[in-house]
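Researcher: I'm preparing a figure for a lab meeting and need a structural model of a single chain. I don't have an experimental structure, so a prediction will have to do for now. The sequence is pasted below. Please return the structure as tokens so I can convert it later.
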Amino acid sequence: MNKDLVLGSAYLAPVSYFAMLYSCEKAYIERYDHYMKQTYRNRCIIASADGPLSLTIPVEKLSDGKNLMKDIRISEHGNWRHVHRNAFLSAYKQSAFFDYYMDEFNAFFEKKYDFLYDFNMEMTHWICEQIDINPELMPTDDYMQGDNVLDFREVIHPKHTIEDVKSFFIPSPYYQVFEQKNGFIKDLSIIDLLFNMGPESLIVLKNSSLMK
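Model: Understood. Here is the structure written out token by token.
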């Protein structure tokens, strides 16, 4: 790719997001955009026995004005850390690489993070390390103008379909634990790919990315 990227902050973002990271040398992760609900900023989607399951991180009550992503604080409401860990355990305990990654993965839920952006960023760094991709991840210092970067901040979104991202991402099938029951589910959280495929996740990203 000739240009750098700008992406939104995301909680265990979908495979398409990491296909973009695979394809670039530098990715700016926006932190001065306005926080919006029902996005990947605080939500990931995994494959449960009953099909896609959405997991949402609660955030502290927002002010009436516009709230910047960098200022969003994680709430401890609903014992969400315990709920998410149990969901990951139930969904992936039979996957090939669950035991290999689980101790380090669990550590993110044992440490208390104040800000959602910081939590997302550290998990994104960790995922990149496990898959062996090396984009330079840069927090933005101000709202990034899209003139000199490829802007994907709102392209990768839970309400969008594969058709919306087909210009840069064609999902390459891989083994999923409940595939025999539910069929292959496209573009789930990267954690689905990592737990199921381990180091071969890199091959899946390579085969899925159209932006080489």
